[in-house]
Design brief:
By secondary structure, the chain is of the alpha+beta class. Helices cover about 20% and strands about 20% of the residues. The protein has one domain. It has five helices and twelve strands. A hairpin with a 3-residue loop joins strand 5 and strand 6. It starts with a helix and ends with a helix.
Length: about 325
């Protein structure tokens, strides 16, 4: 073989490796050399939380499937933005009358890419890509929680709470859910999940702290880095107590002392989150939840994409006319 050709074949892999190293080092770092995750991120994703049954044990989408997901999202957005006929007839009794139109929604425009691969589910454990089952006690707690958090969706028919002497979901603001009261939205904060809108997160990092500003409900998580001890359980809060440490270039965050909304109690729950760099410059956000209400732990992984968008001020109280109407 020609020596020049051989040298090119040998050099190509080396050049490729070097380019990867250069790309890796192009990520910003703190003065101590740790990755600096500061920035704004879009955490929306069209990857389903649970793997659809038709995929069986298949872990990744094909390129064609990824394109179909993005195309479908674009088509739905265009359809949702079409003007409505002002002379349309009323929907059938009990039908879904909808909510916001497409302009207000941001489900995402693509599946979640992690180092170039697109999983068929955000859940990575159990291996079937689906959430584990609830325990019997977990089922009882879930049944009790639904009427208090979303009483209008509790399908007993009609004003069911008038027939239950010990249930008073609309007697005062304290009986309404935290979300309705504009206080806290757990699924937006811990662990972070993709939602219909308000998916922008702002991260500010120093050597000793990581702050994640949550757009939905104007919430800020303050995570202590290299603090070896959690606060006493008497300091339990809705987003728990979080401490973090470095494992190489991955920031590991452990959260305990998480306060449940209903029933109001400190949850038997431990959440471990992992923040590392994605190959597109964003964040690979992974987490594992150990929850006594489930028959097994579960893990998930999703990408946070860098964005130049700023989070909106979540002026929920100022516009919360519905709660005042409910209590009137």
């Amino acid at each position: 073989m020609n020596k020049a050709v051989l040298s090119i074949l040998v050099a190509l892999p080396l050049a490729f490796v070097q380019s990867l190293l250069i790309a890796q080092e192009s990520f910003p770092r703190t003065p101590s050399g740790k990755p600096d995750f500061s920035g704004n991120y879009d955490t929306s994703s069209l990857t389903p939380m649970n793997r659809p049954a038709e995929f069986g044990d298949r872990e990744y989408y094909t390129a064609e499937e990824v394109k179909a997901i993005s195309d479908g999202a674009a088509n739905r957005l265009a359809y949702g933005d079409e003007p409505l006929d002002p002379d349309r007839s009323a929907p059938e009794a009990g039908a879904n009358v909808g909510a916001y139109d497409g302009f207000w929604m941001n489900f995402g425009d693509s599946a979640s890419a992690i180092n170039g691969n697109y999983r068929t589910s955000i859940i990575t454990y159990p291996e079937n890509g689906r959430m584990p089952a609830l325990t019997e006690e977990g089922k009882e707690k879930a049944a009790m929680r639904i009427p208090f958090e979303w009483p209008q969706e509790y399908t007993k028919g009609g004003a069911w709470w008038l027939e239950e002497p010990d249930v008073h979901p609309f007697d005062g603001p304290e009986n309404l859910s935290l979300g309705t009261r504009c206080i806290y939205t757990g699924v937006a904060s811990l662990p972070v999940t993709s939602l219909p809108y308000n998916n922008i997160k702002k991260v500010v990092q120093t050597e000793d702290y990581l702050m994640i500003y949550i757009e939905w409900n104007h919430w800020a998580r303050i995570i202590r880095i290299n603090d070896e001890e959690h606060k006493h359980v008497s300091h339990a809060s809705y987003d728990g107590d979080s401490i973090a440490w470095w494992e190489g270039d991955t920031l590991v965050v452990e959260t305990v002392n998480i306060l449940n909304e209903a029933p109001r109690e400190v949850a038997d729950r431990r959440i471990v989150e992992r923040f590392s760099r994605n190959d597109d410059g964003g964040i690979v956000y992974g987490y594992t939840v150990e929850d006594a209400n489930y028959t097994d732990s579960y893990s998930a992984e999703v990408s946070w994409r860098l964005t130049d968008k700023e989070p909106y001020e979540f002026a929920c109280h100022e516009g919360n006319h519905a709660m005042a109407g409910i209590l009137a």
